[in-house]
Amino acid sequence: MKKIEEVILFQIDLTSKVSKQYSQREFDKLKLNITVEQWVILKIISENNNLSQKELAIKSYRDPASITRTIDLLEIKQLLLREAIPNNRRTYNVILTKKGEDFINSNMKTVLEHRKLSIQGLSKKELEQLSEILAKIRANMN
After folding, report:
1. pLDDT above 90 for 79
2. Per residue in 16-60, pLDDT tens?
3. Which neighbouring-strand residues pair with 80?
4. pLDDT at residue 88, as a whole number
5. pTM of the model as a whole
6. Which pLDDT score, from 0 to 100, does residue 74 have?
7. Cα angle: 107, vertex 111, 96; to 5 degrees
8. 3-class DSSP state for residue 3?
């Protein structure tokens, strides 16, 4: 039997956690006052117009309760807002405010640097193979 550190799914999870911890430390150094999870939500919203909370939960692979709490926090920070959908009292679209758009734009360079660091030393072919392997694992688990 393999040790836990040799299990691929454990290695994937560990890599994800190390990546998030690194990014969070960098966000904290820059005093961005945001979590990595909040950044992901803002980025998804910036890339998709008129997402409902439910659609946002699906796109981010987060549970609806967690999305609601994150949206509440980002709304307090004035980075996004809930916009009523006509003829639908139960569902809202989540949109970036001007402050949210500016926040994404002014911090994208930092995020791109994190991404670049994470793949440092990997060839284009290795990245393509890794992407294919991860897609196969996700398909197996679906």
Report:
1. yes
2. 999 999 999 999 999 999 999 999 999 999 999 789 888 999 999
3. 96
4. 78
5. 0.89
6. 97
7. 50
8. coil
Give Rg (Cα) of the chain.
18
CB 52 within 8 Å of CB 94: yes
DSSP string covering 6-17: G-HHHHHHHHHH
List C-alpha distances in Å: 104 to 9, 35, 108, 123, 138: 31, 13, 6, 28, 28
pLDDT of residue 78: 97
Q: Which of 110, 48, 108, 113 is nearest to 80 (CA)?
A: 48
Query: Considering Cα of 81, then 87, then 90, then 93, what sign does the dihedral take?
Result: negative
Cα pseudo-dihedral 134, 25, 94, 58, rounded to 10 = 20
Cβ-based neighbours of 40, under 8 Å, separated by 6 or more: 60
| Cross-strand pairs, 100 | none
In 1-142, at which residue ranges do the beta strands (DSSP E only) sit?
Answer: 51-52, 80-85, 88-96
Cα dist. 26→16, 112, 114 in Å? 16, 12, 9
